[in-house]
C-alpha cells in the first residue's frame, strides 16, 4: 500500500517465531486462563502480566510464548489497517474513549505525528529496537 511494504530477507532465527497481537484474555473451563491472538491462536496459561493489545512472541514449532511486549508509550509499533497502513512509529500516547474506539498517537522516524485506532496497531519492539 503506497509502497510502504517491502519484502526483505529474514534470518533462520527470525523464521522460528512470530509476533502476534493479543485480542482477548479470559478464563475458560475450570478456571484455565487463555489468550486469543489476532491470527486466531488460542494460547493456554499465558503470563498473568499479558493484557489485551500487548504483543506476544510465539515459537512456531511449539506454539508457546517466548516473550511479550507491553502496549505503552515509547514502544515501537506498526500500523496494519486503515489509512496509515504500513507506517512504523513510536507510541507517543493513548486516548481512552469509553464506549468507543481508543486512539493511539504515533511519531515516525521523520518526526511526523499521526493517529489511528488501537486495533489497527501491533507493537513490534521495545523502545526503538524491533523485536
Summarize the topology.
Layout (H helix, E strand, L loop, with lengths): L16 E11 L5 E5 L4 E3 L10 E5 L5 E5 L6 E4 L8 E8 L7 E5 L5 E5 L3 E6 L2 E2 L1
Antiparallel strand pairs: 1-2, 1-4, 2-3, 4-5, 6-7, 6-10, 7-8, 8-9, 10-11
Explain what this protein looks like in three dimensions.
There is one protein chain. The radius of gyration is 15 Å and the shape is globular. Helices cover 0% and strands 45% of the residues. By secondary structure, it is mainly β. Strands 9-8-7-6-10-11 form a 6-stranded antiparallel β-sheet, with no helix packed on it. A 5-stranded antiparallel β-sheet has the order 3-2-1-4-5, with no helix packed on it. The protein folds into 2 domains: 14-69, OB fold (Dihydrolipoamide Acetyltransferase, E2P), CATH 2.40.50; 76-130, SH3 type barrels (Roll). It has strands spanning 17-27, 33-37, 42-44, 55-59, 65-69, 76-79, 88-95, 103-107, 113-117, 121-126, 129-130. It has no helices and 11 strands.
- Indicate the CATH class of the largest domain: Mainly Beta
Intertermini distance: 23 Å
SSE-based structural type: mainly beta
CATH superfamily of the largest domain: Ribosomal protein S4, central domain
How is the CATH topology of the largest domain named?
Answer: OB fold (Dihydrolipoamide Acetyltransferase, E2P)
- From the alpha carbons, calculate the radius of gyration and give it in angstroms: 15 Å
What labels describe this entry?
ribonucleoprotein; SH3 type barrels; mainly beta; 6-stranded antiparallel beta sheet; single chain; 5-stranded antiparallel beta sheet; 2 domains; 131 residues; OB fold (Dihydrolipoamide Acetyltransferase, E2P); Ribosomal_eS4_central_sf
Amino acid at each position: 500500500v503506497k509502497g510502504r511494504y517491502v519484502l526483505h530477507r529474514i534470518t533462520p532465527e527470525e523464521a522460528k517465531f512470530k509476533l502476534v497481537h493479543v485480542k482477548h484474555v479470559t478464563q475458560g473451563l475450570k478456571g484455565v486462563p487463555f489468550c486469543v491472538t489476532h491470527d486466531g491462536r488460542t494460547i493456554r496459561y499465558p503470563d498473568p502480566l499479558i493484557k489485551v493489545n500487548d504483543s506476544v512472541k510465539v515459537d512456531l514449532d511449539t506454539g508457546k510464548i517466548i516473550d511479550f511486549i507491553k502496549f505503552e508509550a515509547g514502544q515501537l509499533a506498526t500500523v496494519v489497517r486503515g489509512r496509515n497502513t504500513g507506517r512504523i512509529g513510536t507510541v507517543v500516547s493513548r486516548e481512552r474513549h469509553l464506549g468507543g474506539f481508543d486512539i493511539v498517537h504515533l511519531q515516525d522516524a521523520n518526526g511526523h505525528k499521526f493517529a489511528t485506532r488501537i486495533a489497527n496497531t501491533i507493537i513490534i519492539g521495545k523502545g526503538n529496537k524491533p523485536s
